[in-house]
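Much of our argument rests on the idea that a fold can be written as discrete symbols. Part of our work consisted of pairing the sequence of a single chain with a tokenised description of its backbone. We regard such an encoding as a compact summary of how the chain folds. The amino acid sequence and the backbone structure tokens for this protein are reproduced below.
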Amino acid sequence: MMNSNFRRMLIATTSLVALSGCGANDIASPGTGGNVTINNNTTNNTTTPAPSPTPTPTPTPTPTVALVTPAAGCPTISNTASPGTLLTDGGTISGPTGTYRVCTLPSVITANVTLPRLAGVLYQMNGRVDVGTDRGATTTGTTNVVLTIEPGVILFAGTGVSWLAVNRGNSIQAVGTATQPIIFTSRDNVQGLNTDASTGQWGGVVLLGRAQITDCAASAATPGTTGCERQTEGAIDPAVYGGANNTESSGRMSFVQIRYSGFILSGNNELQSLTTGGVGSGTVLNNIMSFNSSDDGAEFFGGRVNLRYFISVGAEDDNLDTDTGLKGNFQYVLVAQRAGSDSRGTDTIIEADSDNAVDGNTPRQNVILSNFTFLHRVNNQSGRTAILLRGGTDYTLLNGFVVAPNSPSCLSISRPQTIQQAVSAAIDELGAPVFRSVQMQCGAAPFLGVNGVTNQQVSDAFGAGFAGNSATYTPSFTSTFINGTTESAVPAFNPSNLHAASGIPSGTGGLGGQPAFFDAVTYAGAVRNAADTWYTQWTCNSSTLNLGTGNTGLCTSLPTF
């Protein structure tokens, strides 16, 4: 760890080296502004005035960013379980942006608390941090313990397997703003040790609720009932979710970055950036960025999820993983995989399963995704695809682009239960993967059928004959992901009368009593044009994806706001 005085000395030394390399037109050193002549006339005992020298321009100082200085102490926050202070003063931590006071959260938060944004303060999760304790599947209400996080707060993971668990019956209010997002990150990120390839340095954020799920832990339990519960993937101690309350809220997360997460405990046993388990439709999720997860960008286990404005960059497994009976609605999703990140040979953009045990269990997964741009950059030698639908899932993809020129296929469908009725032209047909206004740039074989499904059946399900669908798309993006001429010409499908939570019963063609979620759109893709700037300000940049100027800067560095 480098102390602040030594850091300032390094900065000053670096500045002198930089100045020594400047040319004559860059900066003028003292005494080089022109020749100065002094004439002393001793005969007449007079002095002839010398000509006025050309004024030396005053050098423009190189702008410097002030280093953060640590707060004098941690804020005092009452906690009924531990009278006095909730936070433990963990001393200071230093990095390229300065030195901070470390305020460590307790292992269990037992009363409503607010983490304020204070200059020179970082909040530390030193191991698992629970918001409340599990309130069970049958009780109601999520106001037992509420964790509120103010805009601009930065939380980092300490040693060990650190992660945040919001248990059933409790909630989180992590509501940042476009100019002051909330950031969850790792210790190495604070200390400036990370690169654009760093991953898997802590667990992630996990929201647990009481909505319906499948794959019950108890073999005798009925899926979708209060007896059907599951343990969170990657958790050693109990972190249980599931129930029958589909409208409950686990809180809100808005304008949030989750960096360098996805701690792998063992094979097929990982935490990802954002995990939801059985959360209800009252949960609000929007403007969330996952950066460099060693597992999924986000995984949603059952429940009712509505998410707008999601960005996943550099995930090493899947980017949008959905299973165990999820009813999900997603709009405006931008994904960029990091080239060379497919070390396990498993990553896809989408991995969808309805049920891992018995195909077709109720509740059957039903996801609708509209307005997406997928940049599948891995050289996927393992045969995995950009989009994988299996396990009897229902999935609807609308208004999107898949760029996967190095992948063996763009779309893979596994098992006949997943593809049944898929050739139907009806948007509301149960059991049918549905594609409208989807354009794909693929490898040699765009469509891959496995486990009883043929390549031709997958091609038929995609339906290249439907308006706007193509498997021979050539991108014309500007700035990597902003729609160009080709993208702007794709006719859009209006999703505003759809809702996955209704199950979209055959013949209704409407919401089935569910509230509207999708915006009516007239374009495909995640970003319509240069004037569409929803991804700016609250995000961070990397060599994997440059999201423009005016945001929080490089993902490898902390913002100073």
